[in-house]
Design goal:
2 copies of one chain form a homodimer. The first copy, chain A, is mainly alpha-helical. Chain A is about 65% helix and about 5% strand. In chain A, the strands form 2 sheets. Chain A has a 3-stranded mixed β-sheet with strand order 1-2-3. The longest helix of chain A is centred in the middle third of the chain and has 35 residues. Chains A and B meet through helix 12, helix 13, helix 15, helix 16 and helix 17 of A and helix 12, helix 13, helix 15, helix 16 and helix 17 of B.
Chain lengths: ~450, ~450
């Protein structure tokens, strides 16, 4: 399909392109247009039917949108923007350089402009920033038939018609009515008799991640958003909630890997931007890892007496780091899914202690067996008569390191959340650095005690 | 609210409980019932209005469901199950022990039973396993008015009425019509004139993660699912797609932290189950980390000549591991969001090489400066006259380790995906173990060359 269209573009067969694209989905058209040469892009975009063109425009990434806006006449720009829903308009303006944003705003009527500026003012992570202002509002003294008339009248321009909002004169939200309710009730029934007054809603300043969580919990298609005075100001639709869920998961995963989150996809982020998102944590962690070096330096002379101890350092550090990150990542995800809160901390610690005991016993035992069998019989690197104390040191260290690693791993994210930090930052790399230092201290302490050095 | 209800339960004020609960949302009621003593649970459940009771039942976790089923009479069981949608019924049966599942199946009529068994047969990760079989089907020669009649007739028992599916006599999918289309068209218009024939659909055996991705891409409320002969067999609704998106993100995060994924929340997973999900990777990674030990053993004698080199081992290993996991996690997420495919591998490598060069130059330079300033002037642990060659070794190693770590980190997930492995497994812990070994080899090679040992 894609290749066929590219051939048609080269052959300038625009009528056929229009025909082909008109049958396609906006998201797919936007994907195809991504690979169209910049010079041809405005031409192809202009041959799309008007309504479809706006739907495609929304699906494009901001660089392509900017390119098109710069190619548009004022009239074309107005036409495209008029078809957009308010939340999409605001998203687009948000991504544009100031001069382009200004030009867009100049092409909107004063009312819309005021609305856009209001929406732009909501913080990036708030419900207000993802809501749209086009919805079907009803009055409680309407009949079902009147409600259908209103839907027919304003429904074309609203993002969803399936949930309608019943408001009073001062726009306070009284109830919600679904089109399903309307269809299953007689035509002359009053809205106030069928509306659901048990409403799940958000405030404009609520965290958008929590709002997305409400969709997951209550299986809704749209959620009303009210201002401080409890007046209905907009709705969030389920497609935006899905986007938020995906973005937040990506952000958490990036933070867990010690990357500053970016809101662009992999190939859209330039080398320099990728570098800047990765270097701060790498640098911080490298510098803190030198503390571990200092611990070793202190023990250097004793290590030269028992050089076999050096060989176990990587294994102990890695196992400690992995154990700790298992706990921290589990807890971070549980916090973000709402399964774990600060009040659960003792329950979490108690569970992690028992898991840690199982893990550390199992690993210490396996390690002991491996040394006695593989290393002794096969590799001949191990002399039980001479090295039993050294092995005891390694297995004991393994035991305590895992215990400490899991405790540090499960508590740090909870404390981070409590003091207002992002728990996701307390993941693997951070925990690894802390656990490395702790495991070395444990290792050397035990070595001093057991080996008497 | 919760406390008020518990007090009412103790006072056996059932009428008031019914009144309070009837105004609440099923998901919230299920949460409250979680904390009700097991003995009281069936009593409280029975006072709920029938339809609400079934909605609450779906929101409960499987242990509570089992408890209730065991308390139900056959008649009660039939009543609850009759109200459920097919996908929920199948999910519940899937979680029950064989004897309970058998009892449920015995209470359903032969037709439903056959349908349930069919749905149970779909693989766990397929579109078939999350679809439901209740939807509104229309014929193309119906008018808009007839379509509304059909919706009114069967709409109560379907999971969504907002997208209707136009099928022919052998249930082949011809098009879709939304209720919005129906409302905005005259009553006598034929369905075939307004239906959308450009349908996005899934096959029963498609991966459910990919199906959820379609919802994200095309902003749909429901997706039709067809069998091998292209006959419509069910639909997936957006609420199930959201659940899949969250589950898959959790699963990816768990795999990235070297945990075998579980489908239960943190506190629902017992200590033993948590232990079993964590120990396999810990054990494997511990054993592979002993290879790193073997590399050090080989170099042991030389290390005792330059003991200062030992202190840098943790910093080099950690920095390498962190660099590698940044790349691998970024690529794993990009793969699962569909941004990176196998054909992009050269583009990925080229980008990662440039990012790695920036990172390694920056970190090597910072490390060099730190040694020359902090360690020399403040800590007095560094003697430039004597240790310049050692420092050169460390900085050179840092440079090459980061380069290699990023290359390994970005390519392994792509290859894993190519050969049918799960890329998420190639994350931090796995990469760390590989990069540790590589960084030590690089370190000692460079030490031998520069220091001439």
């Amino acid at each position: 399909m894609q290749e066929e269209i590219f051939e048609l573009i080269e052959g300038k067969k625009y009528a056929r392109i229009r025909e082909l694209l008109s049958e396609m989905n906006p998201a797919d058209i936007a994907l195809i247009l991504e690979d169209v040469p910049e010079r041809e892009l405005p031409v192809i975009f202009r041959i799309l039917p008007k309504e479809l063109a706006s739907e495609v425009f929304v699906e494009m990434d901001s660089e392509m949108q900017q390119l098109l806006i710069e190619a548009f006449s004022d009239k074309e720009l107005r036409e495209v923007m008029n078809e957009l829903f308010m939340d999409d308009t605001v998203d687009i303006i948000d991504e544009m350089p100031a001069s382009v944003a200004k030009r867009i705003l100049q092409q909107t009527d004063p009312n819309t402009r005021r609305m856009i500026n209001q929406l732009l003012a909501y913080p990036d992570d708030s419900a207000g920033s993802i809501m749209t202002t086009e919805y079907v509002d009803l009055k409680k003294d309407m009949t079902v038939d009147m409600a259908f008339d209103r839907i027919r009248k304003i429904g074309v321009d609203t993002e969803t018609i399936y949930t309608c909002y019943v408001i009073d004169q001062s726009r306070h939200l009284l109830g919600i009515v679904s089109v399903k309710d309307l269809l299953l009730n007689p035509k002359d029934k009053l809205i106030e008799e069928i509306m659901d007054e048990n409403i799940i809603f958000a405030n404009t300043l609520d965290d958008k991640e929590e709002v997305a969580g409400l969709f997951e919990k209550y299986d809704m298609l749209a959620l009303p958003v009210v201002d401080k005075e409890n007046r209905l100001v907009g709705i969030v639709t389920v497609d935006d909630a899905i986007d938020v869920i995906q973005e937040e998961a990506t952000e958490d995963i990036e933070k867990m890997a010690a990357i500053l989150p970016s809101d662009k996809s992999y190939f859209r982020t330039g080398v320099w931007a990728t570098f800047r998102s990765r270097i701060p944590w790498l640098m911080l962690l490298m510098i803190s890892a030198t503390f571990t070096g200092a611990i070793i330096s202190n023990f250097e002379e004793k290590l030269t007496v028992f050089p076999a101890l050096i060989a176990f350092i990587p294994m102990l550090m890695d196992t400690g780091g992995n154990s700790g990150s298992q706990s921290s990542v589990t807890i971070i995800r549980a916090i973000s899914l709402g399964d774990v809160e600060f009040k659960d901390i003792l329950k979490v610690i108690w569970k992690e202690i028992r898991v840690a005991l199982c893990c550390s016993l199992a690993l210490a035992a396996i390690n002991f067996l491996k040394l006695l069998t593989v290393d002794y019989y096969i590799l001949h690197t191990f002399d039980p008569g001479k090295q039993i104390p050294e092995i005891a040191v390694v297995c004991l260290t393994l035991f305590f390191t895992i215990l400490v690693a899991k405790l540090v791993g499960c508590t740090l994210p909870i404390f981070a959340k409590k003091i207002g930090f992002d728990p996701a930052v307390m993941a693997s790399p951070f925990i690894t650095t802390i656990v490395d230092a702790i495991s070395l201290v444990i290792y050397f302490r035990i070595a001093i005690m057991v080996l008497g050095i």
